[in-house]
Amino acid sequence: MVEEFRIGDNDLEKLFPFYFRMETKLQIVKAGKGLLKLYPGLVGNNFTDAFRFIRPSFSIKNTYDSIAEYTNQVIIIQLQLKNQKLLIRGQMLIIQEQILFVGSPWMAKVEDLEKYNLLVTDFAVHDPVTEMLQVLKVRQLAFEDVQKHHDGLVKANKEISDLAKFPSENPHPILRISFSGTIK
Amino acid sequence: MYGIVNQAIQGLVTEQFGEETWQKVKEKSKVNIDTFFNNESYEDKVTYDLAGAAADVLGIPLSEVLIAFGEYWVLKTGMKNYGSLMKSGGGNLKEFLINLPNFHSRVMLIYPNLTPPEFRVSNVDENSLQLHYYSQREGLADFVVGLLQGLGKMFETAITIDLIKSRSEGFDHEICSVHW
Ligand code: HEM
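YS: structure for the whole thing
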């Protein structure tokens, strides 16, 4: 027997605080609290005004039918608030003639959390995004170390090649003489 | 583009034509950078200048450089640096191409500031499909052809690629018809 399993908006919001769903004219009917924190007046707005497609961007259109063709692709959308251009990465799904979007903010560095006024508690417990940002930070620091080392080597190399020119550019030979007077 | 792209041009020229030729290419390109770092972003101009200089120094058309570069990217750069990522893209050529639209979304986890290409597949048949390529960058259609040839070799599948639409003739994106 196939058992039908349903999940309500309250639970959906716990798993995906940045989810929203919209009807066939792309009017947003419900949204998770993470998203509402960033965009309090979102519900009732049209997707077309609230978001912009970043990925895919060329081939997708702001229509129900077009979006429905992309349910097997990673979707990145951008909030269209004056001072809030956060990217959200996720997936669309058609359920009972509505489009459901679930996803999570997509940031390039850990400092962005502060910039977008996001706290770890705004994310779902299972969401690895904040940990990933820490990993990126560690990598960035390691990269800075390597770059410092590299710049030091370039400088040292230059000094060596300058010194190497010394004998050829100096008409007088260089002698090192010990205290006892013998030439070394 | 990220340094890994410029590293790959350097690798291609050095492995196939020697270190001296690479030094000539670098000089000709007027790119004054000693070491490319894999995950540092460079202006696109650096990449275009290197590719153009390679064509000049080797005395071959730019399109040939881009095709060779595409093959090298898949068979050497991709397989060497990200072999598991490449292999997880699909079990055969057809699967890989169908997954291609999502591929750079995964790459964006490694290179967060990526400006990735956008792909779409249509007309999928038993032995062919059409690959749509959309990009903010100009002039890389031949690179895509080279990449596809590289994928054919990676999956040991003989393929033919026809560029049936392109921006250079006024269309808004490129379409490659791929048969295998
Ligand atoms: C492990 C494998 C791969 C990695 C790590 C990778 C990574 C990258 C990177 C770093 C760029 C430069 C973009 C930027 O820095 O903003 C790029 C561009 C590009 N990649 Fe990949 N890529 C991979 C495989 C592929 C494959 C298999 C294809 C296609 C068949 C492909 C097609 C392209 C194209 C066409 C561009 C040019 C970008 C444009 O048109 O704007 N790549 N990729």
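YS: worth flagging: Helices of chain A lie at 9-15, 33-38, 47-50, 64-68, 111-115, 129-169.
IM: good catch. Also DSSP finds six helices and six strands in chain A.
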